[in-house]
Amino acid sequence: MTDLVTLHIAEAADLLNKKEISAVELTNAHLAEMEKGRILNAYITETPERALADAEASDKRRAAGSALGVLDGIPIANKDLYCTAGVRTTAASKMLANFVPPYESTVTQKLKDAGTVMLGKVNTDQFAMGGSTMTSYFGVTKNPWTDEQGAYSLVPGGSSGGSAAAVAAGLCMGATGSDTGGSIRQPASFCGVTGIKPTYGRCSRYGIVAFASSLDQAGPMARSVKDCALLLGAMAGADKWDSTVAELPVPDFAAALTGDIRGKKIGIPKEYRPAGLNEQVAKVWDKGIQLLRDAGAEIVDISLPHTKYALPVYYIIACAEASSNLSRYDGVRYTERVPGATLDEMYENTRTDGFGSEVIRRILLGTFVLSAGFYDAYYIRAQRVRRLIYDDFQKAFETVDAILAPAAPTPALSYEAMKRMSPVDTYLGDVFTTPSSLAGAPALSLPVGLSDTGLPIGLQIIGKHFDESTVLQIGDVLEKAAGFDLTPRRVKG
Predict the structure, then answer these.
(1) Residue 56 confidence (pLDDT) above 90
(2) What residues act catalytically?
(3) Predicted TM-score (pTM) of this structure
(4) Which of 24, 32, 167, 274 is the most buried (most CB within 10 A)?
(5) How far is CA 404 from CA 82, 274, 290, 354, in A?
(6) Which helix (H) or strand (E) holds 460?
């Protein structure tokens, strides 16, 4: 019998359409796996009753010959930043621990309209600030890939660590993530799954708890490039509630996977190979370059000269926007109030109690760079350099179709190693992902090889604005050439 929780979305959709399996069977298999997999702490809120109701509705539509969504009956999870009407949305924070939205985010509504089955809400770093899920108020998520002793001691990455871990462990078939500076791509690399950050403006941000509004972008995570293409096709599109969404038609991303990239020019940026680059990451990168060359692509050396400024620029801009966005959580409008003798004391008590240390750190950094006397010196200067980084990519794309680079500077790290790192050291984990985030360019992460200790290592393909089709096309070819079909050992429960 087919092991339903190991299927790819495309495979499951085919079996559903042939009526060889039912949506209820598929959903029950994942609910059982979720129960066994609670040791991973991937989910904050499970919604089994809603999932079964969604699955039953899908089976009824199929039996009646009614029109079906492109993902009808497919069980997915949503990152707990997406507002879901009637279902708790916490942003993995104490501040929103009991928040039940009365409305649905545009992306999750589009996925509902496509027929998906929602299994629940998955863990994240608090307000998406972190690269490990260690800042979550609801506890850390464990990477389903184990260490050499077989222990769950590794971080899944972040902030979409719950999404990546759930997909890798078979606790859902796909998941929504969000990427501000690498929060889809880094956890995809750590957990051996695939994830794409679309072009800024491809997917609506309406109903997603905001971190940094000029950087946040919704995107899918799944087990294959094709599955990501199917999910992205359902998630993307114009939205009257979000003025930053492009008024562009959504291509058939799955149809772009032709398997032929002969003549495509792939840029290799010299700045992404600094002295001291992790040897295992460099080895997988070299492997990816050769695989694309063997597939008929032309490899071109390029330069993105302002890359070295991307990390500080990102943290100035992101923290500034976080300081502004999170000012709304004050004990008056959105959150439970912690009393104080004065209004100022109530604000202080509420925010001190509701925010974790990493969120507070970023709010303070953001408030500082926006303050009088420092606004021009830091924030305005960072915005100017951001434009130079954008121009670097635009110039590169005059000569190449896409760029291949590492997704993360190391394989998955242990919790103990992360605990010993300073905040600045943890920020360095975003060194390869922040440049394309600042430029607003689409970028796909997919697993290509293993480290010496058997942990997945991903590469990212960065493309031209609103050309996710080419990014996915190249990713599909690289995926097939790499032949990475490994998964972590199943959770025994």
Answers:
(1) yes
(2) 79, 159, 183
(3) 0.97
(4) 167
(5) 30, 15, 11, 40
(6) strand 456-463
